[in-house]
Design brief:
The protein is mainly alpha-helical. Strands 1-2 form a two-stranded antiparallel ribbon.
Length: about 210
Amino acid sequence: MSAYRSAGTRAVLLVTAGILLTQCSTPPPAAEVVSPAEAAIAPLVSIRELMTYIIDPASDGVFDAVGADVTDAGVVETFPETDDDWAEVQRGALTMAEGMNLLRLPRRVAPADDNVAKNPGELPPAEVEAKIAASPELWASHIDRLQQEAMKVLDIVKARQGDQLFDAGSAIDAACEACHLDFWYPGDREAVERFNNSTTTFDPPAP
């Protein structure tokens, strides 16, 4: 019996050693690789902060690049002239275009500690958020429109066509206004449309 137990013990030890050897030689399962696109992205700021501190200042690089001053000698127009001037326009357009991708991320309309309307006629942030949630396709279409207008400015920069920046700026302004009327100031739509449809002329002073 002792010989049987000894042989059995040896068999158990051999089997156990084989199992341990197999476990040691088997590589651990590979860690799951999550691409940056699949990783959750948590927005850091609200729409109001994004617009106030990133997108709106960037638009000044386009709007302020051209101008028209009425002087005694007539209307004097200004355009970008140097490489630095054009770089400022490009910087503004690129920031606006890329900023639209940030707007695609769901986020609060206003900071939690400042969750109130700021201007007369503006809807409270909670109502704006509700309108965005109810019309995501409309929200996305406004983002697309403004992004496309910003990208057009980059073509103008490449071609150095300063005179086209007037129309480009107007198109950007119209895209912004359309979004604001749908989500922030719907009560102003009638007055704005009436103004836009009116005939406004400007006659420079006679020399």
